[in-house]
Every structure is written in C-alpha cells, then in structure tokens.
Specification:
The protein has 464 residues and is α/β, with parallel strands linked by helices. The protein contains 15 helices and eleven strands. A hairpin with a 7-residue loop joins strand 8 and strand 9. Helix 10 (218-230) runs parallel beside helix 11. The longest helix has 34 residues, at 355-388. It is globular and about 65 Å long. The model has no long low-confidence stretch (mean pLDDT 93).
Length: 464
C-alpha cells in the first residue's frame, strides 16, 4: 500500500481493520474485569520505543493499534474496571461508544445548521428533553460543550453580558467597576481559571465559606454581597454547586436564587455530576430549585456515563447567547442563526457531541438512568454500612453516589489506607479534603461496580 493510501484505504480494507479492532476491544473488555485498576510505571524500553517513532518510516496500522492498546491496558487508571470508584468518569455506557464510532465515520460539521441539519436537530431535541426533565421553562435552550469548564465559562460570559449590555462590544474597560462572582469554597476551582481567561481576574472570585457540611453558607454569601456592594464592586453572578467534587454536597439553591434576585445577579448552577439526579423520581427532590436557575451545567460524561467530552450548557434566557457569541462571516452560509452553533456557543468547528446522550436515552430511557443512579446510591450506602461496623466514619451527608470516610485511626491514616488500596490493585479510590480534614473518597458512579466488588472493598478497608 502506498503511504497516502494508508490515510484513505479502500472500503474493503477499512472493514477488515475495523473488524479486527472490534475483536481486540472485545478482548480488552473481557480482560478488564481482572486487570489491576492502577497504572504500572512506564518502562524505559517503552519510552525509548515511543521516542523512536519519528514518523519517517511507516508501520502497519494494525501493528500501531496493538501497541497503543497494550500500552493503555497497563499505562492508565482503568476507569472501566468494576473496582474503579474514582473521580466521576466511570465505565462509559455502550450506546455512547457506538455513537463515537458513528460520528467518526460521518464526521459532520455541526457549527452551522445547513451543513448538518439532522445532527443539529438531534442535539436540539436532546437538549430540549433534558431541560424539560430538569423542569426549566419551555423557552429554555442550550448546547453541548467539550465539558463542564466550557459550560461554566459560558455562564460567566452570559452573566457579564446580562449585567453590562456594552460588555460584548466595548470590553472590560467600559464596565466602570470590578465584576465579582460568588462560589462555594468547596466548588470546582475551574472558576479561577475562567475568571482569568475572561479578563476579570482571579481575585474576582469570592470563595464563600461553607456551613460545616460542605454547602455554601447562605449567611456568609449575604454578608459578602452586602460588603462588596458597599465597597463599590459589581456583583455579577452566583454560581451554586449541585454536587461538589469532593463530597457531593448541594448548595442552598433557594437561598441563592433569593440573593440573585435581591442583588440583580445571574444565578448559575454547576450540576456537572450531581445533575443526574433528575433521572430519579426517588431522589429528584434533592435538586429542588435548580429549575429556577438562569443557567445550568451538566456533564453527561460523569454520572450519565457517556464517553468523555460531553458537557451541556442550559439557559432559560437564550437571547443572551446570541448577544455573547453572534458573529457574521462572509465564508459562512446564510442560515437561521438561532440554530447555528458557531454564533450561539464558544466553539466554531464542532463535533457531533450530542449523539452520545441521544443514543443512550433512546436505548435506556429515563427509567434506565433512574435505575443506574439509584443503584449507585444503594451501593454507596452499602459500603458506608460495611465500614461503619469496622470503626470507619462517614463524614458527608450527600444524597449522591459518593462517600467520604475517616479511618478508625483518624485523618492522619488516610494516606496509608489509600496507598494500600492502590497497592492491592483491585480497587481505585481517592483521597480528598472535606471541611478541612483528609478523607478517603469513594465515588460509586461506575455502572459495572456490583455488590460483590463493594463487599470486597469493605472487607479490605476493614482489614487495614
């Protein structure tokens, strides 16, 4: 095969390679059930082999794929392993894996409606159905993003535009006073990076103290807002968290809405992983008030278990998106700008992200996701009950699939226990901080985790 033919092989050659890849990945999934969860050190020989690939010489694609697959089987934390109780990125649902393959084969450009009307309509319908499930107003809209950071950054831009109508054209110099945003001290601190990138500066982020249970303290929020207004600063947005990273706690959403109304602020809710509770009739009430937000972030690649890169931004004030992002370019076709993502979102060229959530909802429905969420919470409670008999203390009261534990010997023993878990290799947990104390954190959002895995982990931790 000529080198250029390797980039665009014949249909028959593609089919053969794809069949081989499917079989290899099926074998990988089978082996993943018994593989160590923790990565092995990269060997000097492997690194030397990698560095030798100058790409002056070609190799068979199947050989290169085998080399990569072998490396990934040992050189990453195995998030598809049943014992992975890690951050938020669990074993992906199969429908979203299939969606990735379909999108790669067609490779649509969804930045403009006329280029991919079917793809855009699928995404818009999916967004609409999720917004209805959240309980947002009928006029709400949104779009898929690369992740929660992009969605949260979009909320800051919308808040600035809503507060300062000239901001989009005249920039920060036109504002006259320093914009401020208010987040919990337990929030995801991507807010600092966002404030830096939009030009208001990291000091514009007020980290509001928590209430001793990992939730934003409403009284502290009120007093901070009052003090900042008296000082001549310009509060712009409250960003409440519905599912903190470390402990799955939910900020007081009703109080945040009341403060936003009192001070004329944009209310955003970062429900990147906790938002999956909308699927469960049993647990949905824990998110009461989220439907009243001006905007919401949800990451489908967390508790909804799609493959990576599936964030979502929702807003009940969609006209703001056009004011923030709309642009006219001679090389773009004339179209309905309300459906053109390049003029209503941060990205320009964009992958057909939403198919992953669409196919997952088609195949499992809301009932399937409800079962997934409720099962995660049951397994979390099962682990907590098991460890309590051995003297471990659960310190967070989250309604979500995450538990933070202090060992019988106290916070100082957390590092030893987490290192022992990783050394054993059958499980992956993390260490974190909750209200200033070190904890062992188990996030049970992996759909392949079962009761047997939980019981084995409980027995192992009890033996330490």
């Amino acid at each position: 095969m000529q080198d250029i033919d390797s980039l665009f092989p014949s249909i028959g050659e593609m089919r053969s390679i794809e069949d081989q890849l499917s079989q290899k990945l099926a074998d990988v999934r089978q082996r993943s059930m018994t593989r160590r969860t923790t990565p092995e050190p990269l060997s000097p020989d492997w690194l030397a082999n990698l560095k030798s690939k100058s790409f002056d010489q070609t190799e068979e694609l199947s050989v290169a794929m085998d080399w990569v697959i072998e490396a990934l089987e040992t050189g990453i934390v195995q998030m598809t392993h049943p014992g992975h109780l890690g951050l938020f990125n669990p074993s992906p649902n199969f429908a979203s894996e299939c969606a990735d393959r379909i999108v790669s084969a067609f490779n649509p450009q969804v930045c403009v409606y006329t280029h991919a009307p079917a793809a855009v309509e699928i995404e818009r319908h999916t967004i609409n159905q999720i917004a209805l499930k959240i309980g947002m107003p009928a006029e709400s809209e949104g779009h898929f993003t690369s992740g929660g950071a992009e969605a949260n950054a979009t909320s800051v831009l919308c808040a600035l535009q809503a507060k300062f109508p000239d901001y989009g054209e005249d920039g920060l110099m036109s504002l006259g006073s320093q914009p401020m945003i208010y987040v919990s001290a337990e929030s995801h601190l991507a807010w600092l990076k966002i404030a830096h990138s939009v030009g208001i500066g990291r000091r514009a982020v007020r980290l509001i103290a928590t209430d001793g249970q990992g939730r934003m303290d409403a009284d502290c929020l009120t007093s901070t807002l009052e003090r900042d207004v008296e000082s001549g600063l310009a509060p712009v947005m409250i960003a409440a968290t519905a599912g903190t990273t470390n402990a799955g706690m939910i900020d007081p959403l009703a109080e945040c809405r009341a403060m936003a109304d009192r001070f004329g602020l944009w209310l955003h809710v970062d429900a990147a992983w906790g938002g999956a509770l909308i699927a469960s009739p049993k647990h949905r009430s824990n998110l009461s008030g989220i439907e009243n937000a001006d905007s919401i972030t949800l990451d489908a690649h967390k508790w909804f278990a799609t493959t990576m890169g599936t964030g979502i931004f929702f807003t009940s004030r969609p006209e703001i998106l056009g004011n923030v992002f709309r642009v006219s370019a001679s090389y773009m076709p004339e179209s309905d700008s309300s459906k053109d993502y390049y003029s209503n979102s941060m990205q320009w060229s964009r992958r057909f992200i939403g198919l992953k959530m669409f196919l997952a909802l088609c195949s499992a429905g809301w009932n399937g996701f409800a079962e997934h969420v409720e099962r995660s919470i049951r397994l979390t409670d099962r682990l907590a009950e098991s460890l309590a008999t051995g003297g471990w203390t659960r310190v967070n009261s989250s309604p979500m699939g995450v538990a933070c534990f202090v060992p019988p010997k106290g916070n100082a023993d957390v590092d030893r226990c987490v290192n022992a878990v990783h050394g054993d290799g059958r499980f992956w947990v993390s260490k974190a901080k909750f209200e200033g104390q070190s904890v062992l954190r188990a996030c049970v959002t992996n759909g392949r985790t079962d009761e047997e895995t939980i019981d084995r982990l409980g027995s192992f931790l009890a033996s330490l």
